[in-house]
């Protein structure tokens, strides 16, 4: 998977490129993705994601991650579409949520990337069965790569 990372913060986040590549490779394995896909990830802060959330989703508050999928059905890859979409990860929320959930910042960043990636692959959590499927996939993809307390 080709991942384009854009950092619109002043934080040093270079280490996440390789980490997200490992997550994407594991997602391809778990989900049996044969096509070479592309996704972009933009790191932002709360103010920026608040504006995006308000302007594009009609929700007037910041959030942790927003995904804009090119296509939102699980059969996406059968259509030949290579570009999965765009993710925006709020590093302020990632830091706060890592502390709140009692795991590392790296784990939270990995979770947000995995969550957004699955959305771009057509998974959602609007119903209980869909939520169970998506959350099980998140664990299967992320758990082998980073423990809850790994820095």
Describe what this molecule looks like in 3D.
This protein is of the alpha/beta class and 151 residues long. Helices cover 46% and strands 17% of the residues. It has helices at 16-31, 46-57, 91-101, 105-120, 128-142, and strands spanning 2-7, 38-44, 65-69, 83-90. A four-stranded mixed beta sheet has the order 1-2-4-3. The longest helix is centred in the N-terminal third of the chain and has 16 residues, at 16-31. The radius of gyration is 15 Å and the shape is globular. The model has no long low-confidence stretch (mean pLDDT 91).
At a glance:
This protein has helices at residues 16-31, 46-57, 91-101, 105-120, 128-142, and strands at residues 2-7, 38-44, 65-69, 83-90.
């Amino acid at each position: 998977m080709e991942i384009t990372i854009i950092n619109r913060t002043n934080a040093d986040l270079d280490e996440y490129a390789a980490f997200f590549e490992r997550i994407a490779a594991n997602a391809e394995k778990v989900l049996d993705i044969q096509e070479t896909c592309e996704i972009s990830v933009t790191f932002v802060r709360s103010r920026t994601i608040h504006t995006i959330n308000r302007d594009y989703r009609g929700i007037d508050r910041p959030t942790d991650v927003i995904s804009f999928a090119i296509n939102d059905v699980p059969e996406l890859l059968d259509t030949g579409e290579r570009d999965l979409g765009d993710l925006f990860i709020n590093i302020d929320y990632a830091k706060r949520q890592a502390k709140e959930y009692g795991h590392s910042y790296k784990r939270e960043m990995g979770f947000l990337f995995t969550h957004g990636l699955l959305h771009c692959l057509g998974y959602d959590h609007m119903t209980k069965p869909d939520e169970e499927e998506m959350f099980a996939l998140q664990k299967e993809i992320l758990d082998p790569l980073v423990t809850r307390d790994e820095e």
